[in-house]
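$ ./design --mode recover --in tokens.txt
reading tokens...
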């Protein structure tokens, strides 16, 4: 019993953390879709300079992914 409770607690914590992380990431992606400056900033941090055409493509891609998940 002394070994079983910490293992169960660990598993529950990992599963809960995973779902909280997925929820947070989805919310961030939705806010990026609505805010092109966030997308541009993320691209700059990754080392890419994007023009307006590429920004429109990224926003369209995010919208299409969101539609597929619903």
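writing sequence...
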């Amino acid at each position: 019993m002394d070994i079983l409770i910490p293992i169960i607690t660990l598993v529950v914590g990992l599963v809960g953390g995973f779902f909280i992380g997925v929820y947070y990431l989805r919310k961030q992606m939705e806010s990026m879709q609505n805010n092109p400056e966030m997308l541009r900033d993320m691209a700059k941090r990754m080392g890419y300079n994007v023009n307006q055409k590429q920004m429109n493509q990224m926003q369209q891609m995010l919208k299409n992914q969101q539609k597929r998940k619903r």
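exit 0
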